[in-house]
Design goal:
Number of strands of chain B: 13
CATH architecture of the largest domain in chain B: 3-Layer(aba) Sandwich
CATH class of chain A: Mainly Alpha
Distance between the termini of chain B: 32 Å
Number of helices of chain B: 13
Strand order of the largest sheet of chain B: 1-12-6-5-4-2-3
Oligomer: heterodimer
Low-confidence stretches of chain B: 1-22
Strand order of the largest sheet of chain A: 1-4
Mean pLDDT of chain A: 91
Number of strands of chain A: 4
Shape of chain B: elongated
Number of domains of chain A: 1
CATH class of the largest domain in chain B: Alpha Beta
Radius of gyration of chain A: 20 Å
Largest interface: A-B, 35 and 34 residues
Distance between the termini of chain A: 26 Å
Shape of chain A: globular
Helix content of chain B: 40-55%
Mean pLDDT of chain B: 90
CATH superfamily of the largest domain in chain B: Response regulator
CATH topology of the largest domain in chain B: Rossmann fold
Helix content of chain A: over 70%
Order of helices and strands of chain A: HHHHHHEHEEHHHHEHHH
Low-confidence stretches of chain A: none
Number of helices of chain A: 14
Largest sheet of chain A: 2 strands, antiparallel
Number of domains of chain B: 2
Strand content of chain B: 15-25%
CATH topology of chain A: ABC transporter involved in vitamin B12 uptake, BtuC
């Protein structure tokens, strides 16, 4: 009993919110929607498939927030990357299309990063501006048209395919979380990111190249958004300028609920995965409950508000 | 009454003679239109459906008065047919969310899906699983690319798009005494619904009103830019007699521009109901008419076409619901006819 209470005292409450919240909401839907298909393997798989792009975006944002920066432009990067990839695939083989899509994401991230790290501009304002800039570019680059993706190998790898019966989007999610977690928790770079976010001056004094860390985290954020763009293009078998636009708030909420601090120095890639799945599960369960659309929005908003409030309240103590 | 019918017939005949031969709404793939009033489920068919334990999912593109009215029309018809609505969603114009909504709704195994595919290209893959599962699909206005009737879907149901544009032209021309200059603000995007309506307005003015000239044409893709577009148009054409605006959202911007210029003479006609626009109209402002669709009837016809498809009955590929011209004189009746709700209180003060 004493051991249990000491363990509970040592538990990071902010990071635990997502585990308890996830479990509580899962159990609620499992009981109330038992006869409505919620617990079917297909529905649960759908939740993972539907949240795969948001999860990948969330991983990038964990790095940016942990370093004390933010990227508001990742939704626009998703659209530009997906459209660039779809256009490239119309004339070039698959590897070129993939490289173009990912390359565009990393390049935009580097553009943001240079402005933030070396021109010392605040990331909030820089990415607020580039969000609009690249949303405009996404609209103009194909004159508002959707671009079909006909390359079946691409749509298999990034969308509807399977490897040993495991859907490719599940594999991308596991790969993304695995690589992200390793980089974040088990490398010197991850430690530098956390140190930069916790106290940039102390990090600089201790020999960490803070501007370079800031550049790299925004490049990672851009690269993750680029990959999310490829996943959307594969899943929809098309790219459109609206892709990623509505993900900004969902992804930020997923990352905060997942235990990442808004002001840097603390975060969790696994928590971001659970936060993203929680958002997907809410969307899914509220539809299956046959609530009116307006009621779905109200309930979803209230649950996110409670989760974020509980999570941030504890971290501010 | 008989005289009125005869007059109406003669009027329609004259109208038909003066408009171009292609003056009718055609489907996205050139399908011939069938009036929605012809798509009905008989009481006997309703009894058969009630025994079938069917269900429906309403997977919309967005939320609005229009979508609410379509939902009400569909829900009332489904209730009459004993078909349970098991899911209602809004994709917020997000193609990825629309795909997720479809996948989620499929967990409830509906027999029918009513939806507005956001985009022919992105929707093709999104509805694929529903199509393969043999679900009766009734689409509002758009069609996923490559889908064939009747194998893949029950029907496309939409407004009588040509009539909407034509009635807007007739209303504006009437308010201008059949002469003068007009500005044409059209939707600058490849979107089947608005393109048909906009072109119908232009074609009608050009074919039926020789003393009216379209002196300014301007596309718009962002409704927020309507005011500056209208300002530029008025600067170049200060004597503009009337302006056609592609839908009510940008028309609010055009109205703001006219007010800012102190212009009380240029008439506005637009499409789809909006309270601020209607308020200007009933107060004798610049707006002379709003042409609206019968959204409730669209929903009813969508539900009926999908139900008939479940019964393996022949369903026309392309169904259109009538348009209604709303003016200051019939705003209450027009609101009810279009949306099946009372007109806002501000309009009757």
């Amino acid at each position: 009993m004493t051991r249990l209470s000491s363990r509970l005292r040592g538990l990071d409450f902010q990071q635990a919110v997502v585990y308890f919240g996830f479990l509580a909401i899962f159990l609620f839907f499992a009981i109330t929607l038992y006869d409505d298909g919620f617990l079917t393997q297909r529905n649960l798989t759908n939740i993972v498939l539907q949240t795969a792009p948001a999860t990948i975006m969330a991983i990038g944002l964990v790095f940016a927030l942990s370093a004390g920066e933010i990227d508001l432009s990742f939704g626009s990067i998703v659209a530009v990357s997906a459209l660039s990839c779809a256009v490239a695939l119309q004339s070039f083989p698959l590897p070129v299309g993939v490289l173009v899509g990912l390359g565009v994401g990393v390049a935009i991230g580097a553009f943001n990063g240079v402005l933030v790290a070396y021109l010392k501009l605040p990331s909030f304002l820089v990415t607020l501006a580039t969000m609009g800039l690249f949303a405009g570019i996404a609209r103009s680059m194909t004159n508002l048209r959707s671009i079909p993706v006909m390359n079946e190998t691409f749509t298999g790898i990034f969308g509807s395919g399977k490897l040993f019966s495991v859907p490719s989007l599940v594999i991308w999610t596991v790969l993304g979380v695995g690589v992200g977690h390793l980089l974040y928790r088990h490398t010197r770079f991850g430690a530098h990111v956390l140190a930069t976010g916790d106290n940039p001056r102390a990090a600089q004094v201790s020999g960490i190249k803070v501007p370079r860390v800031r550049l790299y985290v925004l490049m990672i954020c851009g690269g993750c958004a680029g990959l999310a763009g490829l996943l959307y293009a594969g899943r929809l078998q098309a790219a459109k300028y609206t892709l990623g636009e509505s993900d900004l708030m969902t992804v930020i909420a997923a990352v905060i609920v997942g235990g990442t601090a808004l002001n840097g120095g603390k975060g969790s890639v696994v928590g971001a995965l659970l936060g993203s799945l929680l958002m997907g599960m809410l969307n899914n369960g509220l539809i299956l409950m046959n609530l009116k659309v307006s009621d779905q929005m109200i309930v979803r908003g209230l649950i996110i508000l409670i989760a974020v409030a509980v999570s941030l309240r504890d971290s501010s103590r | 009454m008989k005289h009125l019918n005869t007059l109406a017939f003669c009027g329609a005949l004259l109208g038909a003679m003066s408009t171009p031969a292609w003056a009718e709404t055609t489907g996205p793939n050139g399908e011939t239109a069938t009036a929605s009033s012809l798509v009905t489920v008989s009481d006997a068919q309703a009894e058969t459906l009630k025994a079938g334990d069917h269900s429906a999912a309403l997977l919309w593109h967005d939320q609005s008065d229009f979508v609410n009215a379509v939902t009400a029309g569909a829900s009332d018809e489904f209730a009459r047919l004993g078909i349970k609505v098991v899911a209602t969603t809004s994709a917020g114009f997000d193609a990825a969310k629309q795909r997720s909504d479809i996948e989620t709704a499929l967990a409830k195994q509906p027999s029918i899906i009513l939806s507005l595919p956001l985009d022919p290209v992105t929707s093709a893959a999104a509805f694929e699983e529903a199509k393969e599962n043999g679900i009766a699909l009734s689409f509002l206005s758009n069609l996923p690319a490559g889908y064939e009737h009747p194998a893949d879907y029950a029907a496309i149901v939409t407004d009588d798009l040509f009539q909407m544009g034509k009635q807007a032209a007739d209303a504006l021309a009437s308010s201008m005494g059949g002469k003068g200059s007009v500005g044409w603000i059209y939707h600058d995007a490849s979107y089947y619904v608005t393109n048909q309506r906009d072109n119908a307005f232009k074609a009608t003015i050009e074919a039926d009103y020789p003393d009216i000239e379209i002196v300014a044409e301007q596309g718009i893709s962002d409704p927020a830019r309507a005011e500056e577009i209208a300002n530029a148009m008025l600067l170049r054409n200060p004597d503009l007699g009337g302006v056609y605006v592609t839908w009510a959202g940008p028309a609010e911007g055009v109205l703001a521009a006219l007010r800012a210029n102190g212009n009380k003479t240029t008439k506005i006609v637009t499409l789809d109901l909006s309270e601020p626009i209607a308020l200007d109209m009933v107060r004798g402002g610049n707006v002379v008419a709003i042409v609206a669709d019968e959204a409730y009837e669209l929903g009813r016809a969508m539900a009926a076409s999908a139900a008939l498809d479940l019964l393996k009955e022949d369903v026309p590929a392309f169904v259109v619901a009538p348009a209604v011209t709303v003016t200051a004189d019939n705003v209450k009746e027009g609101w009810m006819q279009s949306l099946r709700i009372e007109a806002p209180a501000s309009l009757s003060q």
